[in-house]
Amino acid sequence: MKLTVRDIAENVRRVLMSSFGMEDPDSDLMVAEEIAITLPARVILYNDDEHTFDEVIFQLMKAVGCSRSEGEQFAFEVDSRGLACVFEGEMTDCLRVSSVLEEISLHTEVKF
Length: 112
Fold this sequence. Notes:
Strand order of the largest sheet: 4-3-5
Number of domains: 2
Number of helices: 4
Structural class: alpha+beta
């Protein structure tokens, strides 16, 4: 998902103005430098006492497309630290990964 600084600023401005019941001013008054950026997001997987290592590893392989050994490393990190960043990328990809992990009720969070 590609956004520009102008897109973000315009959306924030619209939301703020509408929340105060203000009309939209002339857009020529707003000046912003357009810089194409991608907003990286991360999928955080949290530890729980409900799932076995094999269940978590299999679901990670399915969601992230990692090997079994990479899935084992993620599962070990989640178990030992309580959480792990298991995927980083565009927001749409992160939402897809999170959705697959949550198919078996794993607890995830998508962060910017």
